[in-house]
Structures are given as structure tokens and as C-alpha cells.
Amino acid sequence: MRILLSFDEKFPVNKEKLTKLVQKETKYVKFELYNGINILSKGLITKPETFKDVLRKFEAIKNSYDHIFYFTLKQYVDNFFFHEYDSLVIMSFFGWEYLTDLPMSNGVLYFIIDYLALEINYTNFRHSKNTGCIFDFLGNKTGVDDGMRQARFCSECLKRISDSLISEEDRKLFDDLQVLMNLLSEASRWNKNILVAESSKSNLLIKRRPKSNNGIQVVIASPSDTDIERSLLINSLEVRFRRENHEKHCGFRIIVNSWEDLASQPGYPQDIINEKIIDESDFVVAVFKHKLGTPTKDIKSGIIRAISGTAEELLQTLDINKNNHPIGMAYLFSKAPVVSLDNPDKEKIETEWNRLSKFKEEIKEKMIYKPYTNEDELITMVLNDLEKNIQEYIIK
Fold first, then answer.
1. Backbone torsions φ then ψ of 339, nearest 5 degrees
2. Closest CA to 9 of 38, 51, 44, 34
3. First vs last C-alpha separation in the chain
């Protein structure tokens, strides 16, 4: 879905920063900023007259977008917040200072969320009274204040919407809505501007919900020299997590996945792994011994994009610009390889170890990783760390 954001010339928000923010936070919806000068005609906003006048300015580009959102300080003739005509939605912020003390940038995000929520609201339901739900009609316009501070679906609406998500597009839009609603409520409840709150946000992880209703999805990532460790984690981690009461302590079962679970299929292997396993995982457990692994490449250009497949999978967990990225856990063998002078692969082994050592230096400021000395110590650490991280970061 492509949406063009357009603002009156004197609309008092940082348009560029706001557009970059919503574009960064969403995966399915793509936002763009219209950089031309916009001034509505004199008088109150009327439908369809004002809409036709505005659409003439966008005639050459309007078919490139699913919606055009136009933000103005001018008032509707019926004093509503917004109406729609053709692909254009005009959103009015008339009298904003009498409705809330939250900034207009928060309001812009609120009405973006409000409209997009209507895209998956097939019953066209609206609460007649202000409840704080995104589906409030807001007949009393002061309800916009609670709406921004709560930015939520009420339990009944959440169930109704969740049950009606049929298409993949609806599910993707719903995922984007959750991210934007969390962003809005986290800032608004503390009277903060979303643009200021976003710029000061730390890199610390925030709590999130599991990606599957079946359990916490854990993927094992490792280079080719970790066959023993990999086999132990894939075959034993899930069972021991349950038998040793980690599941009871954190309230979740785990489901262990790996690339071996994928069916044979066409496509660049790392891209398939990223899309079908990494993106769907809650945790990536990366294990290294003496090798870093084979570099990955951009399949079209052939240019190297990551120093190894395992490194690429782990680094995705550190990408805070990637919505709902998995949580990374890394474990590295504590001893360097012992290589005899007459070993024909001596140079290759040393090169791999040096690559891995350099990678360790690069990530040490970005995450906590742990050394292990044998397989038993490794699986014990992973079990305990998984329990702690689930308790700290996963919402029941």
C-alpha cells in the first residue's frame, strides 16, 4: 500500500521528519511526502467541492498511490476530523489546542492509524461513546486526547478484527498498525512528541508478543564446523526446556527451528532462510566455534552483503530499524584451534579464526555474547538465557 502525505504550507509539524518516522516503522505501508506547496481555497472545507479542487493538483500522480492524506488547520463545514472522496482524505486539525495539549505530530500519526484501521474494519463499526479504542467515532472531539494516549483496540474490537483477517495484505497492515499504535501511545501517555521521543529512543529491546500462538520460535544459526553443538541444540533444547521446568517458569513453550526444516525449493538459500525462518522467529541462537562461515551476496549484483550466513542472521537481530526483529543470542567457543605446522589447511584454518575474532570485536559493543568450553555447558547456558529473555521481553 502506497500513501502520499501532503500538508498545508503552514501546517506546524516537521513534515520530513514525521514522514521518515512512519516510513521507517512500517513494512507493508509505504509513505511518501509531497514536496509541493499546498494552500486550500478560502472558506470551510466542503465535500466534494474542496476535494475536487485539491485532486486537480494531484491529477498527474494520484493513480500512483492508494491514498492521499492531506493535513490542514482549516475547518470542515460539519466540524468533522476527516472525510474521504475518491483517493483523497482531508484531515482537519481546526481547534486542536482546545481538544488536547498533545502536539499535532502525534495527531497526524493518530489519524493515519485511525484511517488505516478502517481498512480492515469490514463491519464499519464505530463506538458511539469515547472509550479510548481506535474505533471511537469521536462525536465529542476531545476524545482524541485519550485516543492518542491509549492508541489501542478495545478487547471486543481486537477479537472482531483478528477473526476477520483473511488476506495476507490485511495481516501485514494489522502488523504495521500494532507498531504505529505502540509508538504513539508510548510517547503520548508521557506528554511527549513522537518526533522527540523517537530521536531519544535507546537501542534497548522493548517487550513484544510472540510471533506464533504455538510457542516461542527459536532458530539455531551456526557455521559448518558446529555439527555437534548444532545437533545437540536442535534435538535436545526443546525437550529439556520443558523437562527442566524452564517452560513452567517463563510460561511459554519453545519450538526449535533450523534451515534443515525447509523443503527443497528454488531461490537463493540465504534469502529463503531470512524470509521463512529468521523473520518468523522470536529468538536467533547463533553458535560459533572456529569458523565464521561463507559470505552471502546480493543475488542480482553478485556483491558481498554479509561476511557469512550466520553473521547475517545474527546481525538482523541488531537492526532496530527492522520492525519486530528477533532477539539475538550469541555463543562463541572459548579456545582457539590447535593446528599442527604440517597441516595442509593450516593457513585456511587460521584465516577463518582471524575472521571470527574480528567479528567478535565488531559486535562486542552491540550485544552480550558468551563463551562456552563444551557442548554441555553450551546447552545449559542457552536454556537459562532463553528462560530469562522470555521472562524479560515476551508479553504473555
1. -125, 125
2. 38
3. 31
Report how far apart, in Å, the C-alpha atoms of 343 and of each of 226, 301, 339, 350 are: 20, 36, 7, 11
Tens digit of each residue's pLDDT (9 = 90 or more) over 30-43: 999 998 878 888 88
Question: Which among 108, 98, 203, 119 has a CA at the least distance from the CA of 148?
Answer: 108
Q: What is the Cα gyration radius of the chain?
A: 25
Could you tell me the residue ranges of all domains in the chain?
2-199, 216-393
**Is the peptide bond prior to 210 cis by the omega test (within 30 degrees of 0)?**
no
Contact 38, 57 (CB under 8 A): yes
> Topology of 216-393 in CATH?
Rossmann fold (3.40.50)
Of the candidates 295, 311, 319, the one whose C-alpha atom is nearest the C-alpha of residue 360 is: 311
Spans of the chain, pLDDT less than 50 = none
> Does residue 258 contact residue 276 with C-beta atoms inside 8 Å?
no
The dotted CATH code for 2-199 is 3.40.390.10
Q: Which residues pair with 288 in a beta bridge?
A: 332
Q: Tens of pLDDT along 57-114?
A: 899 898 999 999 999 999 999 999 999 999 999 999 999 999 999 999 999 999 999 9
Reported as type and span, the H/E element at residue 173 is helix 168-188
Single-letter amino acid code for the residue at 259? W
Grid coordinates representing 190? 508521557
Residues forming beta bridges with residue 136, ordered by sequence position = 127
DSSP string, 281-295: -SEEEEEESS-----
